[in-house]
Design a protein that fits this description.
about 325 residues, alpha+beta, 8 strands
Length: about 325
């Protein structure tokens, strides 16, 4: 075995020009990668067996990959450079050049650090960033990925497309996190317009009852969240009871139902409310939906006095003196 090893080392030296020291460094580098990635594989296998949660498994995959990459960089750098001072010098010179030529990737890397530190969103959150909306499904060093929501699809349904966003956008775009804040629910509004001749007060009571039925299961939890987080945030007291705001539209009385719902259930609760509204209004002859119409007035048939017809102004004719 020693003779074979000596022959291989001599062949690498003669044919490839690799010195004994370089060969030892290559062998140590290969051994380092095998050990570190073997440990990562063993860790992930244990996690898969002990934790069935897909979210936790994803977390361990990402964390173990990042830790393994950092350790591999430090160990391999120590192998190839005689001291950490030399390694720091090389890294400093390389960073100066890369900072100019790779500005955007560096900003994206800084955005990744910001996302991990400040956590404006985490895996699974539904966010709006710029003109994009979606559920965060992956976070990497240079970009994060979202399962797109909305766009050509009505409501909050997914389109099926995965959108990849550079991490640097977190410094340039406003981020709205729908599900990741301490306030787990959102307010939603539905507008119902009834005719001026309808009993709009009865319609208002009907909408309040329906809103209370839909929003009651969420109200207690939201009230507890407001109390728990009031010392840490400037939280104004919000009216959590369902409300019906009455306004006047062009073609009737507009009743706006405002209620609490889970962010991903807006479309579902809206459908549920509209079904109950249609059924409730259908049982009442005193309530009619309003919609844009054209109305003609006939005072004589409606028993009203006709508008007086103005007389034409008198004209004065002056004859020329003969």
């Amino acid at each position: 075995a020693r003779m074979e090893l000596a022959f291989i080392r001599k062949w690498l030296n003669d044919e490839l020009g690799l010195s004994d020291a370089t060969q030892e460094k290559l062998l140590a580098t290969l051994f380092t990668f095998i050990v570190l990635w073997g440990l990562r594989f063993a860790l992930l296998r244990v996690v898969r067996r002990t934790d069935p949660s897909l979210r936790r498994q994803y977390y361990w995959r990402r964390v173990s990959l990042n830790v393994t990459a950092v350790l591999a960089t430090l160990v391999v750098g120590r192998i190839w450079f005689s001291s950490f001072e030399a390694l720091a010098t090389v890294v400093g010179l390389a960073s100066a050049g890369l900072a100019i030529t790779l500005k955007d990737p560096i900003v994206d890397l800084a955005g990744w650090i910001f996302i991990g530190w400040r956590k404006p969103f985490v895996l699974g959150d539904r966010i709006d960033i710029g003109d994009l909306s979606g559920d965060v499904v992956d976070i990497r060093a240079f970009q994060f990925s979202m399962m797109e929501v909305g766009n050509w699809i009505d409501g909050d349904a997914r389109t099926g497309r995965v959108v990849h966003v550079p991490n640097g956008h977190v410094f340039r775009e406003a981020i709205a996190n729908t599900t990741g804040g301490w306030f787990k629910d959102v307010f939603h509004e539905i507008k119902v317009v009834v005719t001026f001749e309808s009993d709009w007060m009865e319609a208002k009571h009907v909408l309040e009852a329906i809103g209370d039925k839909v929003g009651r299961p969420r109200r207690a939890a939201v009230e507890a969240e407001v109390v728990d987080h009031a010392p840490a945030f400037l939280v104004m007291r919000e009216e959590l009871e369902p409300q019906v705001i009455v306004t006047v539209a062009d073609h009737g009385v507009c009743l706006t139902l405002r209620y609490l719902c889970e962010p991903r259930a807006r479309r579902k609760t809206e459908s549920q409310i509209w079904i109950e509204v249609l059924q409730a209004f259908g049982r009442r002859d005193s309530i009619d939906f309003a919609y844009p119409t054209t109305r003609f007035f006939n005072n004589s048939s409606e028993g009203k006095k006709p508008w007086p017809v103005p007389e034409p102004p008198a004209t004065t004719v002056r004859l020329r003196d003969m």
